[in-house]
From TrEMBL:
Residues 1-41 form the signal peptide. Keywords: Copper, Membrane, Metal-binding, Signal, Transmembrane, Transmembrane helix. Residues 40-132 form the CopC domain. One of its GO terms (biological process) is copper ion transport. One of its GO terms (cellular component) is cell envelope. The keyword Isomerase does not apply. It is found in: Cell envelope. This is CopC domain-containing protein. The chain crosses the membrane at residues 167-189. It comes from the Bacteria. Residues 146-157 have a biased composition (Low complexity). Residues 138-159 are annotated as: Disordered.
Length: 193
């Protein structure tokens, strides 16, 4: 044993050893659970699918993620080859799904679906994909898209990690608390001897 530990009374050594064992157990638990907890949401499926060539215009876009997403700051846009936006409603989130209703799509061509969501751990995720409408959709005055705006993301969505605390903050807090507890125990043991 180390010289300073031998100088401590037996009860203090026991307390230090138990505290150290608890500290190691907590670190091991954090290491084993940090992987899944630190993972962020990722797009796992979409309808229409990425790169799909379709003849009939969809009435809705549905995105599925590998984990539940928050409704806060969710954004979903569908922009046609003419630069028009074709989303009819605000995006809806339910569990792992983000969706929006569409107005009747316009000309044949490549449509870009853009999205931004916040994963369960508070980390924002964004991306886009395309699908190809091979036949122009019949349009009516009520179904015309809206002109594209310079930004496809809501301004409020620009904050990064604005919801919840990242996992690393909790890990640091646990380490600091355990280290402080160990320092108190060692200080008390030194004062007794």
């Amino acid at each position: 044993m180390h010289e300073s530990i031998r100088a401590l009374p037996a009860t203090a050594v026991t307390i230090v050893m138990r505290t150290a064992a608890a500290f190691v157990a907590v670190l091991a638990a954090l290491a084993l659970t940090a992987g899944p907890a630190a993972a962020h949401a990722a797009l796992s499926g979409s309808d229409p699918a990425d790169g799909a060539r379709i003849d009939t215009a969809p009435t809705q876009v549905n995105l599925t993620f590998n984990e539940a997403i928050q409704s806060t700051f969710a954004a979903l846009t569908v922009v046609g080859p003419d630069g028009q936006h074709y989303e009819r409603s605000e995006p809806k989130t339910q569990g792992k799904t983000l969706s929006t209703d569409l107005t009747g799509l316009g000309p044949a061509g490549v449509y870009t679906v853009g999205f931004r969501v916040v994963s369960e751990d508070g980390h924002p995720i964004q991306g886009s994909y395309t699908f190809d409408l091979t036949k122009a959709a019949p349009t009516t005055a009520a179904d015309s898209g809206t002109p594209a705006s310079p930004t496809t993301q809501p301004a409020a969505a620009e904050t990064d990690e604005s919801n919840g605390f990242p996992m690393w903050i909790w890990a640091v807090a646990v380490v600091v608390l355990l280290g402080g507890g160990l320092a108190v125990v060692l200080g008390a043991a030194r004062r007794k001897s």
